[in-house]
Design a protein that fits this description.
With 276 residues, this protein is an alpha/beta fold. The protein has helices at 3-13, 40-51, 62-66, 71-84, 100-113, 131-134, 153-156, 169-178, 196-205, 223-230, 243-246, 254-271, and strands at residues 18-22, 57-60, 91-96, 118-121, 140-146, 187-191, 211-213, 237-241.
């Protein structure tokens, strides 16, 4: 199955737009694990098992593993998800952006070493920094477009000189992802839940590409406003929540608490789907 096939299947089967981000911080682990980077796999695997029937995707953030020298634990976690949640796609949040042979190696890392179904990328260096990832049939690539952090304004909201008027940079990226760069239907866009008006604008420009939307939960994005802005019948959205779910409890019940928060968030998102 392609990434998009898996995404649609998981969204339908689990009645969900929710993606759980796996951003393990050992200092926030529960007692018995707290402060121990060797427990990253155990913590994340417990979260996966507790939420696998509530999500449309998982999104491990590679920096949280690499900072602790825990890439081997990420490999084990990817294998665990394949074995225990085989119908749920995995988006490797790597935000890579490089050209030529280096991009080829990053693509190999994401899709061959880790076996991810999709990856996040920076489009700043142009199409030749994205193209190596598109050589993997059926894999997905999400381009940073309108990100949830305040500093995104520094570049993403700048106007460009263009024959099509003066689009903002993020609007230009959305047009490329909907059109000439999306040669095999593999591209999606990252847009932040903290900017629902911009989500709506991106969706108007790119009505069919999948949107990966971080920022719900600890970052304060409005879940209902996010769905109203981005949801379309033929344009999937993937709404990510990380810390609010991972650290719903710092006790022995952390996995159960994570499940309850994931269920609450999923239901909130589903309830916001506009009536036909």
């Amino acid at each position: 199955m392609t990434f998009l096939d898996m995404l649609r299947d998981a969204a339908t089967q689990n009645n969900s737009m929710l993606c759980v981000g796996l951003d393990p911080e050992p200092t926030r682990f529960p007692a018995g694990m707290q402060g121990d980077p060797h427990k990253i796999y155990d913590f994340c695997a417990a979260i996966v098992d507790a939420t696998a029937d509530l999500v449309c995707a998982f999104k491990p953030q590679i920096a949280y593993f690499a900072a602790h020298g825990a890439e081997d634990q990420l490999e084990r976690l990817m294998q665990h998800m394949r074995a225990n949640a085989p119908r749920v796609p995995v988006i490797l949040d790597a935000k890579r952006g490089d050209i030529g042979s280096t991009a080829e190696q990053y693509a190999r890392e994401a899709f061959e070493r880790y076996g991810a179904d999709a990856v996040t990328l920076s489009p700043f260096m142009g199409f030749d920094s994205v193209e190596p990832y598109l050589r993997y049939p059926g894999k997905g690539a999400f381009l940073l477009c309108r990100t949830s952090n305040p500093g995104g304004d520094d570049f993403q909201n700048q106007r460009l000189a263009s024959v099509d008027g003066q689009p903002l940079l993020y609007e230009h990226i959305a047009r490329l992802a909907q059109g000439p760069w999306n040669k095999n239907g593999q591209l999606g866009l990252v847009v932040g839940a903290t900017y629902p008006a911009e989500i709506e604008r991106v969706r108007a420009i790119a009505p069919q590409v999948p949107l990966l939307i971080p920022g719900v939960g600890a970052q304060g994005g409005d879940a209902a406003a996010t769905v109203r802005a981005g949801w379309r019948q033929d344009g999937p959205i993937i709404v990510n929540s990380s810390r609010a779910i991972l650290y719903a409890s710092n006790g022995a019940d952390f996995a159960t608490a994570a499940r309850h928060e994931a269920q609450r968030t999923r239901n909130l998102l589903q309830a916001a789907i506009p009536l036909p």
